[in-house]
Amino acid sequence: MNSSHDPEILGLPFYEDGHRRLAHQIGVWCDIYGDLWETVRRTHPDEAGRRLVQLLGEEGWLSGLDPDKTPHDLPADLRAVCLAREALAYAEDLADFAYSIQSLSATPIARFGDKEQQARYLPRMAAGTLIGAFAVSEMEAGSNVAAVGLTARRTGDGGHVLTGRKAWIAHATIADLFVVIARTGEGPGPLGLSAFLVPADTPGIHVEPVDAIAPRSFGHVRFEDCPVPDDALLGRRGRGFVVAMDLLERFRMTVGAAAVGFARRAADTALSHTRGREAYGGTLFDLQLVKAQLADMDIRLNAASLLVARAAWEADRGSRGFARHSGIAKVYATEAAQEIVDAAVQLSGAAGVVRGGTAERLYRQIRSLRIYEGATDVLRLALADGLDMRRADRGG
């Protein structure tokens, strides 16, 4: 079994044989492309992003985005997405980023698009020849999707004109298609939002690149009287909030899975370093304090893995409460991963802060996961607000 997954976790009833085969195959695949990961780290994030989306499509790892195809005769559910993200994050951040944003962008089309929209976009997204981006966040709205302000004004021919800005959009600088949440005005707050499919070459779209602490394709998007036809509407008018929340609730657990991948790589790096580093007449691993730190890392890693597996299993079996488990998994896994990576840097000593080293690279990469798809504190508030309802359901 490849080291990117824990075979004991995979052996639990949360997973089926198809998931175990997938974990093995993508782990082996990531090992085979080890030289490529070194290359993309030295490549401009835009070029690396295009290359990786294309490679993932060519190799069949995005096939699950097209409902008419089955990837490698393996499952294409959320457990599969989580296992893929865990392996890719363990191997290379940009590979996970390419896979996750392509999946994030295609999922609303698969779940809410009509047959024509699905046929127009999904086969090319699955092949890696059309790159997607999901544009919901705005500087003024922050984590509050209901506060989205970008407007979609209706025109006489049934189409719309988009005006406003989106911020911090992943793959903004390389996207061929934006899934955009905009305000059409059916009602206040979440009731007035709709979703649109907007090709990146539509007149009026302007992209401003943004440098992140971990290099990747990232940017702000400005829509200046951007015209979209009536068939650009994704789902029903006034249902954009539903589209956005359905997507975020499903993908939060996958962010947790990526965090597990980063954390496992950090823990493996720390263990290898402490076993090989001579100190005080033995090795660092012989020191009781170091052993305690490594044990704490392993405890957090196991807990995070179990929470992610449970959340994905709940979603795949159609549990009504899966969104809560997705939020729990995302919060715990990303916070635990931050602690694990920080400990790995500390145990690495001066080598841990040298640019380009594994520990330093993971330290920059893990930080953003505590913000993506719902910041930790926002999700904690949402989870707390649901406690009374759960107590009532239990008859308490």
Topology record:
Layout: H1 7-10, H2 17-32, H3 34-40, H4 45-58, H5 78-91, H6 93-112, H7 115-127, E1 132-135, E2 151-154, E3 160-170, E4 177-183, E5 193-199, E6 205-209, E7 218-228, E8 233-234, H8 240-276, E9 278-279, E10 282-283, H9 288-316, H10 322-348, H11 358-366, H12 376-385, H13 387-393
Parallel strand pairs: 1-4
Antiparallel strand pairs: 2-3, 3-7, 4-5, 5-8, 6-7, 9-10
Helix pairs in contact: 2-5, 4-6, 5-6, 5-8, 6-7, 6-8, 8-9, 8-10, 8-11, 9-10, 10-11, 10-12
Which terms would index this structure?
52% helix, alpha+beta, Butyryl-CoA Dehydrogenase, subunit A, domain 3, Butyryl-CoA Dehydrogenase, subunit A, domain 2, four-stranded antiparallel beta sheet, single chain, 396 residues
Give the CA-CA distance, first to last residue: 45 Å
CATH topology of the largest domain: Butyryl-CoA Dehydrogenase, subunit A, domain 3
Approximate strand percentage: 5-15%
Low-confidence stretches: none
Shape: globular
Main pleated-sheet profile: 4 strands, mixed
Based on DSSP secondary structure assignment, what is the total number of beta strands? 10
Number of DSSP helices? Answer: 13
Q: What is the number of independent domains?
A: 3
| Structure class | alpha+beta
**CATH architecture group name of the largest domain:** Up-down Bundle
User: pLDDT average, as an integer?
Assistant: 94
**What's the level 1 CATH class of the largest domain?**
Mainly Alpha
Order of helices and strands: HHHHHHHEEEEEEEEHEEHHHHH
Radius of gyration: 21 Å
Lateral arrangement of strands in the main beta sheet = 1-4-5-8
Level of helix content? Answer: 40-55%
Full CATH superfamily name of the largest domain: Butyryl-CoA Dehydrogenase, subunit A, domain 3
